[in-house]
Sequence to fold (180 residues):
Amino acid sequence: MKDQLRYKFRIKRKYFQHSAREVADGAIADAVLAAFKDRQSFFVYFSYGSEADTRALIKRLISLGKEVYLPRVVGKDMEAVRYTGGEQMIKSPMGIEEPCGDGYSGKVDVVIAPLLAVNGQGYRLGYGGGFYDRYFAAHPDCLKVGIGYFLQYTDEQFAEDTDVPLDMYICERGIIYFGK
Fold:
């Protein structure tokens, strides 16, 4: 079932109009910055393919003096690596750019996760690797935020025992709260 949903939402996101996507990406970045202006550290995915674009958001966070961390996959886990904008990036075996540098194991205030879909209980449908769910389970004090487009919000039920729900979802239409 999850594989069928992944396919469905990849197609929906892929065919989201480019001009609407650019406007949505700007609205999402503005909403993140407004919602978390008092937070200092952010673990943000580095956008890939048709995901909601995080590159401008990352630049804006850095320009505001915020601590920014990007994900790097190490075996079956994911670690945060400090990013200030000038570090070397390498392509992972999955084709995603990841930062070089030392992993960070301290507390991060806000984790911004990618997703294919999110439902009304805050469960995100990811790509199937479980990296974010394991990270969330190991770092329960972080604020878990998904970002994407409204077309990715669904009534579908797909949660499994190992899934960790988000606290909120930010899209071009605003913020949907699930928890904290």
